[in-house]
Amino acid sequence: MTPTVAPVKHARWFSRPLQYLGLAAYVVFLGFPLLFLLSTSMKSAQELRSPDNSFLPNRLGLDNFGAAIEKANLVQAAGNSLYVAVLTTVIVTLVSLPAAYAMARFRTKLRGAATIWILLSQVFPFILIIIPLFLVLKQIGLVDNPHGLVVAYTVWSLPFALWMLRGYVAAVPVDLEEAGAIDGASRLRVLRSIVLPLLAPGLVATSLFTFISSWNEFFFALVLIQDPDLQTLPLTLARFVGAEGQVQMGQLAAASLLATIPSLAFFLVIQRRLTSGLMSGAVKG
Amino acid sequence: MKRQALPGIAAVAVAALVGGCAFNSEQADSGGSADGPVTLTFQSLAFQDSTVAATKEIVDSWNADHPDITIELTQGSWDGVHDQLVTQFQGGTAPDIIHNESSDIMGFAEQGYLADLGPYLSEDTKNAVSDEVWDTVTTREDEIVATPTLIQTYVVFANTDAFAAAGVEVPSGDQLSWDDLRAAAKKLTRDGKFGVGWGLRQPTAAVMNTALGFGGTFFDIAEGDGADTIHVGDNELAVPERIHAMAHEDRSLDPVSLTQSGSDVLPGFLSGKYAMYIGGNYLAQQITESAPEGFEWTVLPPLAGTEGPVQAANPQTMSVSARSEAPEQAAEFIDYFMNPENQAKLAQGDWLIPASSPARDVLAEQTKDTPVWQPILNSAEELTGAPFQKASKYPQWKDQYATPALQQYFADSIGLEDLRTKLTDGWNSIE
Amino acid sequence: MTATVTARPVRPRRRRGVGGFGGNGGRDAWLLVLPALIPVVLFSVYPLVQGILLGFTDAEAGLNQPVNFNGLDNYARLLDHELFWKSFRIGLIWAFSVTILQFLASLGLALLLNLDIRLRWLARTLALVPWAMPPVIIAIMWKLMLNPSYGPINELMRSVGLPGDINWLGDFSTALPAVIVVGIWAGMPQTTITLLAGLQNVPGELHEAAAIDGAGTWQRFWHVTLPALRPVIMAITSLDLIWNFNSFALVYVLTAGGPGGQTMLPMLFAYNEAFRYGNFGYAAALGNVMVVVIAAFLVLYLRGQARSRDS
């Protein structure tokens, strides 16, 4: 994997106090909004409205969470999000694994084409895809349907999943496969018993990343899902904030926290692998 | 082999692309009545707990009595309903029965998405609503594309304790002129408190509705071809001018509140920061729900300009999609939805005014012990149709030109003449 | 969103096929790629090509609305559409401000994280969190932070005696800067982590050699670190620029383009044209223009970088 160099110990770029001051500023900038969200989610409506609203909540109340779940229809939305994200992840993983293998191991014109496509897919604004995609999905009856969303997310996540996985495949020494082949094992068997186990961590990272992207996605869902019963979490939350009803800051904060938990948890699981994997995938080609 | 595959695929793709841009694949509307049991979807936009419950009750009782026509209730949201309908109509997934408001729905009618309810609605329903209000939901071709349900007006809520503390008499009578409002607001502004808070983040509808009090109609709709032209004279600008003066000359209207939504400003009213609070009458429900113990409030008489306390009737509406399988059955449900008891129940939950006069009578009877209802119901007497509801590009003009221009004017970053120009030129640049 | 960076050009590994599996690599590769290729062609390439063509038609919402090619009409209309120009200007200000400020902030953080410094783990973890959060929730969170009456930002301003009643997202002059700050917050993780990884790949010997030559801290940063980082910087800033120019969810929830179109990014503008006003052909034309503009900027930027490296 990447040759990780230990942090340069002798570097004296700034004097120490300045460094800590800088770090503290970053910690506050990055962390304060999160703490504020947490504290708001605990506060009662009265406390939020009172003029001397302090930063720390008066109580550790969880009733906002209960109310948010009920009111914003979070359970149903979470179910929809989960269904779409899991199905997308499964399809993307199944489809991208062989393709990534081919891209890493065979030098054909495909590889160049695929790389160009992966880069291009980042440049094109969604608006250009969404209108015709909407019409295509409409013709096959997948508008306002979670499976339409799965289709959109699959093609949208594929380039990146391919990119990541290709890096992981490339990191598996070819010699291992050759050795297996010389031993007379069938190709499938070599792949299954030698390559796949080595790929497993990368595969997990790729699928979790796909899951997170689908779980968080908003734009496609906004256009493709109109039925309130089919809405995904981001959609439900965006509507919850928009409603011209009472300002329920506490509930809004609670709902937001709940919706972040799954992706955050997964993210922390894969973050080390993700960062090193991304780089190695890129560096090793 | 694969060498030939690629050009092949490309050829097929190009043929498919040229063959059709996938747009022209709609089915003509079926129309008429379906045989046998039908299930119709109804998307409600009710958002206050009380109205959501009332809507559900009505649907449940209908379903219990009508095994052949099942109504499936879904919950939409006012925020984004326009985009949602554009997408649903285009995708062919619109609900059968559509809840919206007249100024927003008429554009869809023009695009052919709504069924003509004229042949299906009962006489009772037709007679319950005044012709002026019907007119706001009737197309040039005399098709009735929606049924008016509840009407929102803009009312002035007052914190009576704040009036007492400032030694100002709470206005009473049939109407409250803008000048009296301004005078009262001035007196009530002291000690860092403002006379008025008004959540005008979306100012256009409020201005369109209240401008009628000064005879400000904004649009001229030609009799024959329905050509719509804009006209921004002094009558049209009377209300914005007064709001501006209160906010920036008298400082009696909190300018920050003008950049916020109605419900954002409400806490300021409840905490005593604003002695008066202007907004849609539906906000009364939120006041009753969240007012602190001992908070004394009332509704002031309807705001009046030179033409009296006139406001535009921009009713909420119930429409039927042109592609619904069973418009007749859908209209049957709308008839039921429109009966006085149901409308009164909905109106009470939202503190809105029923378009149906029998329903208003029921409501007056039911609320005779709640004095604040009286001025709200009274404001219904002077509701009239307004041309902006028929101007076909009104929603786009509202978003792209009117709202930004009014916001800038209220923020004191452009003057009255600039406002006039922006409103006029904006309208003329659409198309 | 996602981030990936090519730090070094791909190095050819091995000739076609894996040894021992015969010379039919080409067909195998096709077979393996096919399952991924089919959905991509059907639901990505095909709609994309159709979308580009749609930009040359008058497609509009409406039941049984006919669609005709209208050549360059849409583009002629765009040319004198004042709101379009305004939106594009806002989009460029937004994309460049966010990208540049985000880069500077991330570079600073990455340099700190690359030091042996206490509480590094905390900053590192915090720096990753926004990556995992749905943009919608980031927007909600900041909306609460910036609330004029209850938000902690205004409270802080009040407590130090500044005017504490600014409606950050509702005021014409503050809306765009406020949204840019949120954009920076949301996008810092990818940039920071990428730069950090790049920093860790800078060979330590180079620094030591430079230090022996008597180069000061600043000189070493300028002459050793920065040139070594250049490929990473180029890649991540280009990607950031694209993502920011095309971003949607964050601003849609924060301001929906308001007040008065002050934060109407091109994507929001195009979305409204298509899904609010039903002008599908016009919106697609807008998308085409966006692609051309982005591509032009990227070519200029990358070429400029390449030239300055050569010289």
Explain what this protein looks like in three dimensions.
The complex is a heterotrimer of chains A (285), B (431) and C (311). Chain A has 285 residues and is mostly helical. Chain A is 77% helix and 0% strand. Chain A has twelve helices and no strands. In chain A, helix 7 (146-171) packs parallel to helix 12. With 431 residues, chain B is an alpha/beta fold. Helices cover 45% and strands 15% of the residues of chain B. Mean pLDDT of chain B is 87; it is low at 1-22 and 24-30. Chain C is an all-alpha fold and 311 residues long. Chain C has helices at residues 25-54, 73-79, 82-113, 120-132, 135-145, 152-159, 175-200, 204-212, 217-245, 249-254, 266-275, 280-310. Residues 1-23 of chain C have low confidence and may be disordered.
Q: How do you describe this structure in short?
A:
By secondary structure, chain A is an all-alpha fold. Chain A has helices spanning 16-42, 45-49, 63-71, 74-105, 109-123, 126-139, 146-171, 174-182, 187-216, 219-224, 233-242, 249-284. Chain B is built from 18 helices and 17 strands.
Summarize the SSE layout with pairings:
The complex is a heterotrimer of chains A (285), B (431) and C (311).
Chain A: H1 16-42, H2 45-49, H3 63-71, H4 74-105, H5 109-123, H6 126-139, H7 146-171, H8 174-182, H9 187-216, H10 219-224, H11 233-242, H12 249-284
Chain B: H1 2-19, E1 38-44, H2 49-65, E2 69-75, H3 81-91, E3 97-101, H4 102-110, H5 123-128, H6 131-135, E4 147-148, E5 150-151, E6 154-159, H7 160-166, E7 176-177, H8 178-188, E8 194-198, H9 203-211, E9 219-221, E10 228-230, H10 234-249, H11 262-270, E11 274-280, H12 283-290, E12 297-299, E13 303-304, E14 311-312, E15 316-320, H13 327-337, H14 340-350, E16 353-354, H15 357-366, H16 373-378, E17 383-384, H17 394-410, H18 416-429
Parallel strand pairs in B: 1-2, 1-3, 7-13, 8-11, 14-17
Antiparallel strand pairs in B: 3-15, 4-15, 5-16, 6-11, 6-12, 9-10
Chain C: H1 25-54, H2 73-79, H3 82-113, H4 120-132, H5 135-145, H6 152-159, H7 175-200, H8 204-212, H9 217-245, H10 249-254, H11 266-275, H12 280-310
Helix pairs in contact in C: 1-12, 3-7, 3-9, 4-7, 7-9, 8-9, 9-12, 11-12
